[in-house]
Specification:
This protein is mainly alpha-helical.
């Protein structure tokens, strides 16, 4: 456990708590958190996770822009739901991308847990994009990622990060409940 991991941990809790509440202020916390975790994961040889942080930084900027536009138009950050066909496409796309990325990490790097790391990374990519688009399905993906990440980070001895993902799991469940409530209120209005 390092000071860097402690700072990233605290920023992560703030970030996801604000996402659950559909607060646009989650993005400054998220940008700093992913920058710190990029360094942490690189040092731990979790290359998929390290590369993922670059992607997260870019998608955090996109999400901030998209949520700002939506809030300006609707008065609040609104929730949307994917069609069944779109859910299937996201699922198939994640499976193919995880297999390809996992193979690349296994074959061409000295990555620790290349298949698990790749699967969690690709699923995180999908979840982050869906969150930036305000799709409620992002929470189901985050729940799966958080469960898998707890085991991965425990295996790597990243105890504080493991704890963070256990907390993220609780926050993701809370987020799913909150966003469903917001969706129902919007439908009733």
């Amino acid at each position: 456990m390092t000071g860097l991991e402690i700072a990233a941990f605290l920023l992560g809790i703030a970030n996801v708590t604000l996402v659950v509440r559909r607060s646009i202020w989650n993005y400054p916390f998220g940008l700093i958190m992913v920058a710190l975790y990029g360094k942490i994961f690189l040092d731990a040889r979790l290359y998929s996770d390290a590369i993922l942080q670059i992607f997260f930084f870019i998608v955090q900027l996109y999400g901030w822009w998209n949520w700002s536009r939506n809030r300006a138009r609707a008065g609040a950050v609104t929730v949307v739901r994917l069609r069944n066909r779109d859910r299937a496409r996201w699922g198939i796309g994640c499976a193919i991308a995880a297999a390809l990325w996992g193979y690349g990490m296994h074959r061409f790097t000295d990555a620790s847990f290349p298949w698990a790391d790749a699967t969690l990374a690709i699923t995180s990519v999908a979840a982050q994009i869906l969150m930036s688009r305000r799709a409620i399905e992002n929470w189901w993906l985050w729940i799966a990622v958080d469960i898998g990440s707890v085991g991965l980070y425990a295996a790597k001895g990243l105890w504080l990060t493991m704890l963070l993902y256990a907390i993220f799991l609780g926050l993701a469940i809370w987020g799913l409940i909150e966003w469903r409530t917001a969706e129902r209120r919007k439908a009733a209005a």
